[in-house]
Amino acid sequence: MPTNLSRRELLAAIGLAGTAVALNAGEAAADQLDPRPQYIDRSRLWWVKETNTPTTEIDWQTVKRFDETKTTRKSMPVYVGKEKADELNALNARVAREAEAEQRPGYTTKDIALKEATNSGRVAMSFLGPNKATTPKDRGVPIYEGTPEENTQIVTAALRHMGAATVGVVELDSNTEKLIYSVDPDGKAIVFEDVEVGSEDEKKRVLPKKARWVIVYTIQMSTETMRRSPTMLGSQTTTLTYTRQTQIQAQLQEFLRALGYHGYGEAATNALGIAPALGVMAGLGELSRLNRLVTPEYGPMVRVFKLVTDLPLAPTKPIDAGIMEFCKNCKKCAEACPSKSLSFDREPSWETKGGWNNPGHKAYFEDSTSCRAYWAAVGTNCGICFASCPYAKSDLASVHTLVKATASMTPAFDGMFRKLDDVFYEDYKDPEEWWKTNLPEMGIDTTQGHKK
Ligand code: SF4
Ligand code: SF4
Q1: How many Å lie between the centroid of ligand 2 and the Cα of residue 390?
Q2: Which protein residue has the closest C-alpha to ligand 1 atom 3?
C-alpha cells in the first residue's frame, strides 16, 4: 500500500498516541467505579462511551417510516430505467460465467462451490417464527418474569451463545417507531395495532403495540475473506452470515416463545426495520462514511439484524467511540471504492442522494446505483470499502488498539492514524492464498471485542 509516511513520523505517532492512551487510561479506571447497573455488556472496550444521543444528528420530525422496496436491491429499474437494469443483470450473470470459465482467482470452481455451499442450509425465515418450542403453559408453569435489566441480560447471553457478536435494545416510541419499515421487502405492509398477539395475512404484518422492544444484534463477517473482494470468494462471507442468521433468528424466536413471549422477526433478508439506524440507536456502533454501521469491536465487518418482542427489556444507549469523527478525515473507503459511490465531503449532510436514502438524518449518503452497477461489472457483490476500513482490522494486540482507542478521545491524531493503517495493512489479498490459511471457525475471531 503506497504511503508518504516516513519512519520517523510513524514512530512519533505511536509515541504520541501511547501518551494519549495512557492519559485516558486514568479515566477508564475511574469508569470501573461506575455505580450504574451492570446488566449491559461490561466487557465492552473501555474507550466506548455511552451517550444520550447518537453521533448522527437526527431530525425526528422529518424522518418517516421507509418502504424497503425503495432500496436499489428492489428498485434499480425505477432509478436507472428498466432497460439499464436488465442490462446490468445480464452483465452480472455473464461476467460470473466467463470468470469461472477462465478460472480467474476468486472465481474458480472451488470458490463458486464454496459460495453455493454457504448459501445452502438456511432455516425458513418468518415474521412469526417456527412456533415449535413448548410454552410455559404447555409445561404447566407460569411465564418467565424478570426485571427489564435481567431480561436484557438473558437475551444477550442467549444470543451470544447462538452466534451473535454484539446485542443491543431499542425501545419503540413515537420517534424510534419510524425505524420500522412501512413496507417489507415482499411488499407487505407493517402496521402497529392494539392487539395482544401479532399476526400476518397476505397483505400485512401486524405488530402489537405492546411489543415495544427491538432486539438488535450483529453477526460477524470474516475480514480475511472480505479482503479477497470483489470475487465470489470474498462475497461468500456475506452469504455465510445471512445463512447463519436464519438459524439464530429462529432460535431467538423459540427462546422467547419458551419463556412465554413473542418474537417478531425478519420475514426475509433486510426486512422489518432499518438495520444501521437501529444499530446506532442500540449503541452497537456509529454511522460512518460508508453510510453503514461501524462498530468499535469489528468495524463494518458485521451484518445487523433485528427482532421485535413483547418481553420487557432495558434499552441500551447510543455510543460515541470517535468513529464518526474519525471518518471526517479518513476517507479511505471512498478512495478505495472503484465506482466512486461514497462521499468525499468532510462533513455529513442532510441532503440525500436518491430515493434509496431515508431523509431526516445527517449522513454521508451514497450513490447506491453506481455501487450496484459495479457489482454487475464484477459478476458478484463487492465489499472493498468494508475491507479497507481501519476499524475492520482485527488484531487488537497491534497498532489498531491504539488507533481506535485514541481516535475515540483525541481527534487530532486521526490523520496520522489513517496513514498508519496504510503502512501496516494490505487491504486486498490473493484469493488463492485464502485456501492455504488456517482461519478460526467461520473465519472469525469470536474473542475479539470482548474482555479487553
Ligand atoms: S461495495 Fe464496492 S462499489 Fe459499493 S460502495 Fe463499497 S467499494 Fe464501492
Ligand atoms: S474507511 Fe475511514 S472513512 Fe471509511 S468508514 Fe472506515 S473509518 Fe470511516
Answers
A1: 7
A2: 371
pLDDT at 10: 45
Write down the residue that cell numbers 470499502 correspond to: 385
- What does the pLDDT average to over 356-360? 97
CB atoms within 10 A of CB 375: 20
In the block, residue with C-alpha cell 421487502:
185
- Interval 177-234: pLDDT, tens: 999 999 999 999 999 999 999 999 999 999 999 999 999 999 999 999 999 999 999 9
Q: Which residues line the pocket of ligand 1, CB cutoff 6 A?
A: 337-339, 341-342, 371, 374, 382-385
Q: Which ligand is nearest to the CA of 288?
A: 2
Distance CA 254, CA 138 (A): 14
The residue whose grid cell reads 437501529 is: 278
Query: Quick check: 257 and 125 in contact, CB under 8 A?
Result: no
Long-range (24+ apart) CB contacts under 8 A made by 7-15 are 9/416, 9/419, 10/419, 10/420, 10/423, 13/413, 13/416, 13/417, 13/419, 13/420, 14/399, 14/402, 14/420
Q: What are phi and psi of 174, to 5 degrees?
A: -65, -20
Whether 11 shows a pLDDT value over 70: the answer reads no
Which has more pLDDT, 4 or 270?
270
Question: Rounded to whole angstroms, how far apart are CA atoms 243 and 312?
Answer: 28
Phi, psi of 44 (to 5 degrees): -65, 150
Residues forming a β-bridge with 293: 287
Q: What is the pTM of this model?
A: 0.90
- C-alpha distances (whole Å) from 73 to each of 68, 70, 318, 353 are 9, 8, 28, 16
Report the sign of the C-alpha dihedral through residues 195, 199, 202, 205, in that order. positive
In angstroms, what CA-CA distances link 223 with 1, 212, 284, 386, 398?
17, 34, 18, 9, 16
Is the pLDDT assigned to residue 28 strictly greater than 90?
no
In which band, very low, low, confident or very high, does the pLDDT at 332 lie, cut at 50, 70 and 90?
Answer: very high
